[in-house]
From TrEMBL:
UniProt record, GO biological process: carbohydrate transport
Lineage, highest ranks first: Bacteria, Bacillati, Actinomycetota, Actinomycetes, Streptosporangiales
Record-linked SMART domains: AAA
SUPFAM superfamilies named in the record: MOP-like, P-loop containing nucleoside triphosphate hydrolases
Protein name, as recorded: Multiple sugar transport system ATP-binding protein
Record-linked InterPro entries: AAA+_ATPase (IPR003593), ABC_transporter-like_ATP-bd (IPR003439), ABC_transporter-like_CS (IPR017871), ABC_transpr_MalK-like (IPR015855), ABC_transpr_MalK/UgpC-like (IPR047641), Mo/tungstate-bd_C_term_dom (IPR008995), OB_MalK-like (IPR040582), P-loop_NTPase (IPR027417)
Keyword ATP-binding on entry: yes
GO molecular function: ABC-type transporter activity; ATP binding; ATP hydrolysis activity
Record key words, sorted: ATP-binding, Nucleotide-binding, Sugar transport, Transport
Domain ABC transporter: 4-235
One matching Pfam family: OB_MalK
Superkingdom of source: Bacteria
Length: 370
């Protein structure tokens, strides 16, 4: 096992495309770090540089106590799991899993023991004689995992390993990967474009956009304190409501965010935590409110300065959740799991006050981004 320290990492492809720009990450020994971002943000390139499959243009990568910039992939002692599984079609499952161990010329009985042990953990024991073509997608994915695990590498590098599986299997395998990683405690870097996967798997999540790291932190920290608008919009499903607003100071000295004809008082606590917000008085800001942080203002008894009023224009029942859509000054706002709001929305004259957060605290949980 090993920590992975990335410093000033950059990649410029031969055609001049800059895929990764000045990436710095300090991945702890045994940590599960997820690199996430939209297609083309450079996450695969970054992972391939760690694996040694892509030349580094700038910066350094250290694995354990060794700088590996010029160490070939096979000598880095990391195991990569690809989206495509990359199994050998002509070899049976036993030989696919054993492949790396045979290359290392381990004794036969040790290979036998390690392959059977890993196959047991992954519930592949009865398929060892089959060829990859005779397995389901989920089983193939487990073989790819098995091949990585059996090598007992210092780190796992996984590139969208679940993206070829259907939704149900993906959730099952996600849990299995989480368990295996926790049990083995092997440093893992996992690439995905799926924020749910990132948030559920990662000890920490690193969000990238156009080659640049936007924020890295534990999932809850990204959720509660997104560093910028991109992270705020990327993390969470349904996404955070982002409303164009301006920051005002009233005659009473209170700070308010104005959204069209309505205004919400900023709680003192928020200004205390983010004193720099005061610098933006009179300027444009974005008010971010998570769908679950809005409630029916009447029911929770919210005061005027803590509410936005709107007429619901759409209700989506999604089984366990109900999403209610409101237009607020041309911006759509979505709230979640508020059955009272959903009921109101069914009435012809439904005018519903939304509380931007519970009770009379104003947008306490709302996030003001400048
Ligand atoms: P995806 O989720 O779609 O796989 P990604 O975030 O993993 O995307 P990369 O594959 O790392 O992104 O690509 C980052 C950028 O580098 C993209 O703009 C891509 O077009 C570009 N790129 C990737 N490989 C090459 C290459 N061999 N030559 C030139 N540009 C490349």
């Amino acid at each position: 096992m090993a920590e992975i320290v990335i410093d000033g990492l950059g990649k410029v492809y031969a055609d001049g495309t800059r895929a990764v720009d000045d990436l710095a990450l300090d991945i702890q020994d045994g940590e599960f770090l997820v690199l996430v971002g939209p297609s083309g943000c450079g996450k695969t390139t970054a992972l391939r540089m760690i694996a040694g499959l892509e030349q580094i243009s700038e910066g350094t990568i250290r694995i354990g106590d060794r700088t590996v910039n010029s160490v070939p992939a096979r000598d880095r002692d990391v195991a990569m799991v690809f989206q495509s599984y990359a199994l050998y079609p002509h070899l049976n499952i036993f030989e696919n899993i054993a492949f790396g161990l045979r290359l290392r010329k381990l004794p036969k009985d040790e290979i036998e023991r390690r392959v059977r042990e890993v196959a047991g953990v992954l519930e592949l024991g009865e398929h060892l004689h089959r060829k990859p073509g005779q397995l389901s997608g989920g089983q193939r994915q487990r073989v790819a995992m098995g091949r990585a695990i059996v090598r007992e590498p210092r780190a796992f590098l996984m590139d969208e390993p679940l993206s070829n599986l259907d939704a149900k299997l993906r959730v099952q395998m996600r849990a299995q990967i989480a368990r295996i990683q926790r049990d083995l405690g092997v440093t893992t870097v996992y690439v995905t474009h799926d924020q749910t996967e990132a948030m559920t798997l990662g000890d920490r999540v690193a969000v990238m956009k156009r080659g640049v790291l936007q924020q890295v932190g534990p999932p809850q920290e990204l959720y509660d304190h997104p560093a910028n608008l991109f992270v705020a919009g990327f993390v969470g499903s349904p996404g955070m409501n982002l409303l164009g607003a301006s920051l005002e100071v009233g005659g009473d000295g209170r700070y308010r965010v104005r959204v069209g004809s309505q205004a919400l008082d900023l709680p003192d606590g928020l200004l205390h935590r983010r004193p720099a917000l005061r610098d933006h008085a009179g300027g444009k800001v974005v008010l971010g409110i998570r769908p679950e942080d809005m409630e029916d203002a009447e029911i929770v008894g919210a005061t005027e300065g803590a509410t936005l009023t709107s007429v619901a224009d759409l209700v989506e029942a999604m089984g366990s959740d109900v999403l209610v859509h409101f237009p607020v000054d041309a911006d759509p706002v979505v709230t979640e799991d508020t059955r009272e709001l959903a009921r109101d929305a069914g009435a012809d004259d439904a005018v519903t006050a939304l509380s931007a957060a519970a009770r009379d605290t104003g947008p306490e949980k709302g996030i003001v981004l400048v």
